[in-house]
Amino acid sequence: MSTPESFLKRMNRHLAPTMAKDFPNLPVIGEEGCYYLGLDGRKYLDFTSGIAVTNVGHRHPKVVEAIKAAADRFLHGPMGVIVYESALKLAEELARILPDGLDTFFFGNSGTEAVEGAIKLAKHATGKPCVVSFTGCFHGRTLGALSVSTSKSKYRKHLHAVSGVYQIPYADPRKCPPGQDVAAWCAEELERNLERLFHHQVSPEEIACVILEPVLGEGGYIVPPRQWLVRLREICDRHGILLVFDEVQTGFGRTGQWFAAQTFGVTPDIMAIAKGIASGLPLGVTAASRELMRKWTPGAHATTFGGNPIACEAALATIRVIEEENLLARCRQMGAYAREKLDELRKKHARIGDVRSVGLMIGIEIIDPTTGEPDGETLLKILHRCADYGVLFYLCGNRGEVIRMIPPLTVTRDQIDEGLKVLDRVLAELDNGHPVL
Predict the structure, then answer these.
(1) Digit-coded pLDDT (tens) for 170-185
(2) What are the residues whose beta carbons fall under 8 Å from the beta carbon of 236, sequence distance 6 or more?
(3) At 286, phi and psi to the nearest 5?
(4) Checking phi first, is residue 100 left (phi over 0); if not, alpha (psi -120 to 50) or beta?
(5) What does pTM read for this prediction?
(6) Helix extents (H) in 152-212
(7) Is the distance from CB of 235 to CB of 243 less than 8 angstroms?
(8) Contacts for 26 with CB less than 8 Å, ≥ 6 apart
(9) Which pLDDT does position 18 carry in this prediction?
(10) What's the rounded Cα separation, in Å, for the pair 177 and 186?
């Protein structure tokens, strides 16, 4: 009979450690809605959404039904060799829900592929060699995407970044001097940082694109002021530089609109999307205008598995569920409710340094209450203890100091209360001197 211990033993025997060593290594036998079903017979409340993937909940019945029906017709479709309805319908639906002008798509299999496609498209269309990204952003782990990722140095260890990539600081409202307007200060700081880059390292005429997450994800859930993104759009337009949004984590309702671009009212030239698009099936998309995509000549990029017919049907079902169940509005409502409860917890527990959120993309910073410094070591203990009590959070931040709370958009008030009650209990244990192992 399988046991949690036997699962972990088998995993450690045959899976690469770089794949198998993560938090919490929970052996499961199923998933449903907002819960994982553990091999130990317990239900675990999931505030990770499979790392921002199952936005409509685990195994939503309408998504499962669409997958089963699709499998009766197709399993594989090398796009271009054949053409099938689900891919065409998905392209039409994406053009409808994306910001105006983003109406032409390249289908891949993952977020990192979507980012690779975005960078390749920008370089091919402009004929320019260089790319600018932001310190703290995460865009994927293949070499091109990794070259623009700087959330943690360990991801780049022993790997030489692709040449012609430059970084500048991401917006950080916490560093705004007292008495100054945060949004204006962040926008001016962006202008100064880019001007320094242009003067000292690379001419804007050589830059194909600027790429960023419109909300910093793995790097710590930093929410920039809208004015900062507006200024970035203006600077890119001023210098003829393409603007790329990596919406792999922020997309498909996570910020309370279909995409963060709509939440902030700033439209990029190219968008990379994945994760929540197909409720767990592998699918990534590079999106741009028809005019820009026409400059990406046939053969310059290709795929064998991209736009799999079953994944496309899952994506179509996911979009329908989000609309039919009004999950964009629900995200905004539940996000506001969770933020209210977390602000109360912050007043109660000195270990919570900051709470940052937009929609149901919520970061909870854990600090040493004595020094005020980020405390990733204690955070990991908190996460393990919460898992012991049946609630799964995840982590992010350069020092692993931010609890990532990203429940499915279907989450209820009762489930939010249940999860935050556990977090409150664990923090109280620490406050009262009880060791959290």
Answers:
(1) 999 999 999 999 999 9
(2) 210, 242, 243, 269
(3) -100, 120
(4) beta
(5) 0.96
(6) 182-200
(7) no
(8) 36, 38, 44, 387, 392
(9) 83
(10) 10
